[in-house]
Design goal:
The protein is mainly alpha-helical. The chain is built from 26 helices and 6 strands. The protein has helices at 7-42, 47-56, 59-76, 94-99, 107-142, 155-168, 173-204, 254-285, 302-324, 334-351, 355-372, 379-386, 389-398, 409-421, 433-448, 454-475, 477-506, 514-535, 540-555, 562-585, 590-608, 617-628, 630-633, 670-678, 722-731, 742-756, and strands at 659-660, 684-689, 692-701, 707-711, 717-721, 734-736. Strands 1-5-4-3-2-6 form a 6-stranded mixed β-sheet. The chain is elongated and about 110 Å long.
């Protein structure tokens, strides 16, 4: 690589160009937030939400100029050194704040730290590659290993400028949270473009040309409003098409698109990538980090082990005291939890004896900081997640593969509990007392067995899975009826397939009209199954249906004598009545019944002129005997190789209490079908079906996951067959509440903070 004549001067020139592009882009950013807020204010929503918007959003236009001015001034102040030494007048410098961790801070300051971290993480998510390339180029030019913590190029510094200026402008946290999605989108586009253009500037001057400049697709600010769900005029002049309504047009959520495209395999691959990045980043500071347990035995130092036990007991006492004071666990504030755990972290670091132990303490603390600031975890259960920090730390210190594998039971337990309580809006949905008590029990069991390592996590994970199955089947009022109906559907469908298989064997060599064969396989097998489910295998009703099958087979066989034809005519009225009754009982519509009866009449008429051999009386007797004992001949349900062609139309199972999805979606890929098989009970989704878009929880899955039931908080049950479920996932009509698991998201958050300040691992 040719070295620039004056690398330092070039670096300064690049940083100035970067700052000028940020300052020039700020007015457009603030304008976009302003116009987006107006769109949000005009949208239809629940009365309480509308009232909240009307109370808060009018404050923004009044203070927006001050917010813009504050950001511009702080960025302008970085022109000379490229560093931002303070977030706003009166606050500690960023470096000094690191030294003040042990002091008590007010809740407002902690909340500002939380929203700053979330904004920095959002920018890092979107612009991580561009930022990494730019950081590498700047480090080469400035001849240093790592960029300064306060360098304005870092996403977390931009985030601090944004939130500190917001605070100085007199704007409140409630308004920020209301506009957070819009603000995040605007800042991610803003930062990504600035990084990209600065990379382009340096690439043109041959600085690290081996790092490819990734193509930057500038998305209009219009698409930033996709998540708000209503069309509106374009936010900026010269745009192309205005805001994009939810569910149509260009979708700019790459993670969601990749999730739909790749399903579970993508999610697993993504999780492995995130863990890999964490291990590589930390290993640059600590070469001994991330060596798995198989490579070296790990023993926790007695002093640290004692400190972890003490911290666990202290946290438990703190929460018990809050409950004893008539403050339910859910009302212990998040800032209070964070402050408690932060102070415990400092004591633990002092007890650690190696740099790897101190780094592990820091990373686990960052993971739980992210988990505890996840807004979709209801407050009532957040405290129980907090109490898992010390047991998880104990495992992470003694089992380094906690950071190396995505299937560690401690990680899986947190993700499973998180998926059950994290819907789309925690404020509009209460977690049931039963689930809350089970999570409490799980955490207390983990706390009670501190020396068992991963085994206690694996044990309670299995117990939690069994609990969920029992809970949705027996205890959850919204799902209990739906699960019962879905199980009946599965029992009926399984029996119908078993009957079809056996009937095909019976009729394999019998001379029976093709129309009758099709009726028996596709209609009457389901009728037999319905009778068996409703009345029992040995009931008179079920025997009548079996006898009707034998009569139909005999009636449709060749009739060569006048006596046989007369006998068919004599038997026909009661036979047709039985066929009608059976189809009625199975829910076949009258119109369809008429079609089936007409086709059977044609087959019976053809039998009168058939030249084929008649079925001997002995064969008919044998057939009837086999039908009587049909259940004993059925193949085992677990051994069934279910062919899609054998699955009956489930629309007949539709009722006021159970909706059956029979159409819709897109042709699914094999990856999407595989993903449909891997969805987990308890997870939340947004379902767009029959002109309703509402949150649904996966409540039940049948054998081999051929059937899946989703239930809304109000008790609406929606049943899918596997391929139809995959089709809805493919089309984006069924969208997970979580694009990634709770621990993966927390790991990314930790990555961003460590990347912003690697020294925190060693302090």
């Amino acid at each position: 690589m040719p070295t620039p004549a004056n690398p330092t001067a070039l670096a300064q020139q690049a940083r100035r160009a970067y700052l000028e592009s940020l300052i020039a882009g700020l007015p457009g950013l603030v304008q976009a937030v302003d116009q987006g807020s107006r769109v949000l204010l005009s949208q239809v929503a629940e009365p309480s939400v509308v009232m909240r918007r009307r109370e808060l959003i009018p404050d923004f236009p009044k203070s927006a100029p001050l917010w813009l001015q504050g950001m511009s001034v702080m960025l302008g102040g970085a022109r000379r050194s490229g560093l931002v030494s303070a977030t706003h007048p009166g606050e500690l410098p960023l470096s000094a704040s690191r030294q003040a961790k042990l002091s008590l801070v007010d809740d407002d300051t902690i909340e500002h730290e939380i929203i700053t971290s979330k904004l920095a993480l959002a920018m890092m998510d979107r612009a991580s590659w561009e930022f990494s390339d730019l950081r590498s180029r700047m480090n080469v030019l400035e001849r240093r290993e790592e960029m300064d913590t306060n360098d304005v190029i870092r996403p977390h510094v931009i985030a601090r400028i944004a939130t500190a200026s917001w605070r100085s402008a007199g704007l409140g946290l409630d308004l920020w949270r209301l506009l957070q999605r819009l603000i995040h989108e605007e800042f991610t586009l803003f930062a990504e473009e600035a990084y990209h253009e600065t990379n382009r500037f340096l690439l043109e001057r041959h600085v690290l040309p081996d790092i490819d400049l990734r193509p930057f697709i500038r998305r209009s600010r219009n698409s930033a409003m996709t998540g708000f769900g209503a069309a509106a005029p374009a936010a900026t002049g010269g745009g192309s098409g205005g805001f994009v309504a939810s569910g149509g047009g260009e979708v700019n959520e790459e993670t969601r698109m990749m999730t739909r495209a790749g399903g579970l395999s993508h999610a697993a691959g993504h999780a492995e990538q995130v863990l890999g990045r964490l291990n590589r980043l930390v290993a640059r500071q600590l070469p001994g980090f991330g060596v798995t347990q198989q490579d070296r035995p790990v023993m926790t130092a007695p002093r640290l082990k004692t400190a972890i036990n003490d911290a666990q007991q202290a946290v438990a006492r703190r929460m018990a005291t809050a409950e004893h004071a008539a403050t339910i666990a859910g009302h212990v504030s998040t800032p209070a939890l964070l402050e408690e755990l932060n102070q415990r972290k400092q004591a633990l670091k002092q007890a650690a004896t190696t740099p790897v132990e101190r780094a592990t303490i820091e990373i686990v603390a960052l993971l739980f900081q992210s988990i505890l600031t996840e807004e979709r975890i209801p407050p009532a259960v957040r405290v129980w997640f907090a109490r898992l920090q010390m047991p998880v730390l104990r495992v992470a210190v003694s089992e380094p593969d906690f950071f190396a594998t995505i299937d560690h039971p401690a990680r899986r337990l947190i993700d499973r509990m998180g998926s059950c309580v994290m819907g789309f809006d925690a404020n509009s949905r209460a977690v049931g007392d039963v689930i809350e008590k089970e999570i409490k029990r799980v955490v207390q069991v983990v706390e009670a067995y501190p020396d068992t390592g991963r085994r206690v996590f694996q044990t309670v994970l299995v117990e939690f899975e069994k609990f969920l199955e029992h809970y949705f089947k027996n205890e959850n009022e919204a799902s209990r009826k739906g699960v019962s109906l879905a199980q009946q559907v599965e029992q009926r469908e399984t029996l119908a397939i078993q009957y079809t298989i056996e009937l095909r064997k019976m009729l394999n060599e019998m001379p029976v009209q093709e129309g009758v064969r099709e009726f028996l396989f596709h209609v009457w097998a389901d009728v037999l199954a319905m009778a068996a489910v409703k009345h029992g295998n040995q009931s008179d009703a079920t025997r009548d249906m079996k006898r009707a099958a034998a009569d139909l087979i005999w009636s449709a066989s060749a009739k060569v004598s006048r006596e046989e034809r007369a006998e068919v005519i004599r038997r026909l009225p009661p036979l047709l009545k039985t066929l009608r009754d059976g189809m009625d009982n199975a829910g076949v519509p009258v119109g369809k019944q008429d079609e089936h009866i007409q086709q059977l009449n044609n087959s019976l008429a053809a039998a009168f002129t058939a030249k084929t051999a008649a079925i001997p009386h002995e064969r008919l007797e044998e057939l009837m005997a086999r039908l009587d004992t049909l259940e004993e001949l059925l193949p085992e349900a677990d051994d069934l190789e279910i062919d899609e062609a054998m699955v009956h139309d489930l629309s007949g199972h539709e009722s006021s209490e159970l909706e059956v999805v029979a159409e819709g979606g897109s042709m699914p890929t094999p990856a999407m079908v595989a993903w449909a098989r891997e969805l987990q009970v308890g997870s939340w989704y947004m379902l767009d079906y029959r002109n309703r878009n509402e949150p649904m929880q996966l409540a039940w899955q049948g054998m081999r996951r051929q059937l899946t039931l989703f239930v809304s908080p109000q008790g609406r049950g929606v049943l899918f067959q596997q391929n139809r479920l995959a089709a809805f996932l493919q089309a984006g009509l069924l969208v997970p509440a979580q694009d990634e698991s709770l621990t993966v998201k927390a790991t990314r958050s930790a990555l961003a903070k460590i990347d912003g300040d690697p020294s925190r691992l060693l302090n």
